[in-house]
Amino acid sequence: MENHGQKRSAHEQEDILDGVQAVLLDVEGTTTPLMFVQEKLFPYIKTNAKTYLNSHYGEDECRGDIEELRKQAEADKEASVEGVISIPQVADDNKEAVVDATVKNVTWQMEKDLKTKALKQLQSHMWREAYKTGLLQGEIYDDVPAALKEWSSEGKRIYTYSLDNVEGQKLLFGYSDKGNLLELFSGYFDATAGAKTEKDSYIHIVGEINVKSEKVLYITDLPTEAKAASDAGLKTVVVVREGNTQLSDDDKQCFFTVTSFEELCSDDSHKAKRVEGEHKGAKHEEASQVDGTKEAVHAGEEAAD
Ligand SMILES: [Mg+2]
Predict the structure, then answer these.
(1) What is the band of 13 on the pLDDT scale with cuts at 50, 70, 90?
(2) At what angle do helices 199-209 and 223-231 cross, to 10 degrees?
(3) For a Cys staple, 247 with which of 51, 137, 251, 284, CB 3.0–4.6 Å?
């Protein structure tokens, strides 16, 4: 499919969704700004680890998290990983030393961009608390909820595929700045499905959701992921958003690109909106549609809780 970065006609947009039964979504850079992850989600852990560990130190879950980190540190030491910070055994009379070492270990792992299971476990528990208490709210691009709603109403199933674990993804969409969006999703895939740049991961996912690969549309910000999905037979769209890695001219020619999910809506009202996009009045219409979605998802929130 050729594209030179120009606006596509409504006809072309219909083509890409033609026959699509399931939409698989990347999260970071696609539904959610990379900045949210880099500037809110991860810094939250570094800033709050000490407070969190101190206040939950007596609880089994927190002690389990520390124990996993301690075991990981032992394994790292065994493997001569540079700079590893050991953690003492959890004990009632050892709280300060254990918390201090755990915070240092977590900070060290995050600075080295390590993604160990032990680190992810503590992070997910900390984020769960932060989302549930309103300290964190998942950021979702404005154009996303209306598109998900439309695809869902057309009978398309919607899935996510992110390196963030399934629980983290559910928190992000469940406690989002657009309300609880979980009812729009049929399922979630994470790193356990395989690497996002491997063709086999997409073959696995397509098998799991039981839809033919050519009837699945994968939307991502990364051409390397789109290539792997495309090699597995999926349709692909690369979303170009502010703050994402710039696409090369080759990428722009190889992949179908959009700057907003609105370009992937086939609904008549959206089509009309695109045609009238240049008119000033369109902005107002858009805003009220987003508000309408917000109300609808908020209504679903109580039931989901
Ligand atoms: Mg991404």
Answers:
(1) low
(2) 60
(3) 251
Last residue of a domain, one of 102, 132, 162: 132
- Residue 204 CA to ligand 1 center (angstroms) comes to 19
* Structural domain harbouring 163: 10-32+138-304
260 Cα to the center of ligand 1, angstroms: 14
Look-up of token digits 């918390």: 99
CA of 89 to the centre of ligand 1 (A): 38
Residue 45 has pLDDT above 80, yes or no: yes
Tokens standing for 237? 């769209």
Which of 42, 43, 41, 49 lies closest to 66, judged by CA?
49
What CATH number should be reported for the domain holding residue 282?
A: 3.40.50.1000
**Ligand 1 mean position to 36 CA, how many Å?**
12
Specify if 4 maps to a domain: no
**Residue 194 Rama label (left phi>0; alpha psi -120 to 50; beta):** left
**Same domain for 167 and 273:** yes
163-209 pLDDT, tens digit per residue, is 888 989 999 999 999 999 999 999 999 999 999 999 999 999 999 99
| Displacement of CA 164 from its chain's centroid (Å) | 7
Question: 32 CA distance to ligand 1 centroid (A)?
Answer: 9
